[in-house]
Amino acid sequence: MSITIIIIIATVVASLVAFRDGNFRNKWIHNPYTVYHRKEYWRLLTSGFIHADYMHLFFNMYAMYLFGEVVEDRFGYFFGEKAGVYFLGLYLSGIVVANLPDLIQKKNQAYFNSLGASGGVSSIVFCSVILEPLNKLMMFPIPIPMPAYIFAAIYIAYSIYMEKRQMDNVNHMAHLWGGVWGVAFIAFTKFETIPAFYQQILSSF
Fold it and tell me: Is residue 167 predicted with pLDDT exceeding 60?
């Protein structure tokens, strides 16, 4: 069984428990005030395993399924027997890194909460973009497949725009920071993927 599938199963189970048990949800959710003032640092990670509702859970885990095994396979080629450690490290650290801006900015806002695997999933998605920039992806509501690197550029612009507009309850900057971490992680651990990324794009013209 792949690590991607194990992560999905663990996240689904934890989320289902959180849907039914409010106390469990409150202990795992990311509350920057509690993390900062009560030193409950585990919330930076555990919040990535619970979700707001079934739709939130489905979209995150569907994206994880689509991109996770692609990245996991490439990590097997890059890192051999340590591939699982690197892959799990990318995903879990992506959750934590995506939560850090809220911890810094909202540590005194007692009623702010955040949850979901978006930071970890975004780190996997953007890592896959670096590895396979010409892979065709679709972005709702645009019905035309586009290269992954164009998808990433549009997604970054969209996340910044939506965060500034504050039109919904989605933590768009967590998505963005998770994505940035995915790029930074693969650049640090396997730098040759960065020039290869540009070479693949240039070769497509």
Answer: no
pLDDT computed for residue 154 by the predictor: 83
- What SS3 class is residue 196? helix
Considering only CA atoms, which of 60, 148, 55, 154 is closest in space to residue 98? 60
pLDDT of residue 166: 64
* Tokens of residue 98, six digits: 């995506």
Reported as half-sphere exposure (CB side, CA atoms, 13 A), residue 171 has a value of: 27
Considering the domain 3-203 in this protein, what is its CATH number?
1.20.1540.10
Question: Where does residue 150 rank: exposed (0-12), middle (13-18), buried (19+ CB within 10 A)?
Answer: middle
User: Nearest CA to 119 among 60, 36, 67, 190?
Assistant: 60
Domain coordinates in residue numbering, the chain: 3-203
Residues 118 and 50 sit within 8 Å (Cβ to Cβ): no
Q: Which residues are within 8 A (CB) of 128 and not within 5 positions of it... i.e. 6 or more apart? A: 67, 70, 71, 135, 148
Tell me how many degrees the CA angle 85-177-22 measures, rounded to the nearest 5: 80
Q: How far apart are CA 96 and CA 22, in angstroms?
A: 22
Per-residue pLDDT at 143 exceeds 90 = no
Instruction: Name residue, tokens 């979700």.
Output: 51
